[in-house]
């Protein structure tokens, strides 16, 4: 079975238990942008995404962002970690997702696996 782009998107929230234990991720992302005193347009340009994509992330309660988007937003808002961007509960879900997909310590566990930007490890 072929994987689609949607299949490769990072799933931040997986089930109802996660939903109950997390805050509104869109509000968290919007709060970071507002604390950085950036408009959606300014933040989107700095993160390399469209304003519409950022608006969609901020509006959805449980958006489905790609890891590269989260990293770009983390750098845009001058935060030191994904945990600072997402908060501990979201970071724990992210770590569990990576672990379930075979990622440990930032490197793929399978030798034939590729890094997040298509390069070998």
Automatic annotation (TrEMBL):
PROSITE patterns: HTH_CROC1. It comes from the Bacteria. Residues 101-121 are annotated as: Disordered. Gene3D superfamilies: lambda repressor-like DNA-binding domains. CDD domains: HTH_XRE. Coiled coil: none annotated. One of its GO terms (molecular function) is DNA binding. Pfam families: HTH_31 (PF13560). Residues 29-85 form the HTH cro/C1-type domain. This is HTH cro/C1-type domain-containing protein. It comes from Mycobacteroides abscessus (strain ATCC 19977 / DSM 44196 / CCUG 20993 / CIP 104536 / JCM 13569 / NCTC 13031 / TMC 1543 / L948) (Mycobacterium abscessus). The lineage of its organism: Bacteria, Bacillati, Actinomycetota, Actinomycetes, Mycobacteriales.
């Amino acid at each position: 079975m072929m994987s689609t782009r949607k299949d490769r998107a990072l799933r931040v929230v997986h089930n109802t238990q996660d939903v109950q234990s997390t805050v509104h991720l869109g509000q968290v992302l919007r709060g970071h942008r507002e604390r950085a005193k950036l408009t959606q347009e300014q933040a989107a340009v700095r993160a390399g995404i469209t304003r519409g994509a950022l608006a969609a992330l901020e509006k959805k309660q449980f958006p489905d962002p790609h890891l590269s988007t989260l990293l770009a937003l983390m750098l845009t808002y001058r935060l030191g970690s994904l945990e600072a961007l997402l908060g501990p509960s979201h970071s724990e879900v992210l770590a569990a997702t990576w672990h379930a997909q075979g990622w440990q310590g930032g490197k793929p566990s399978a030798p034939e696996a590729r890094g997040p930007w298509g390069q070998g490890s």
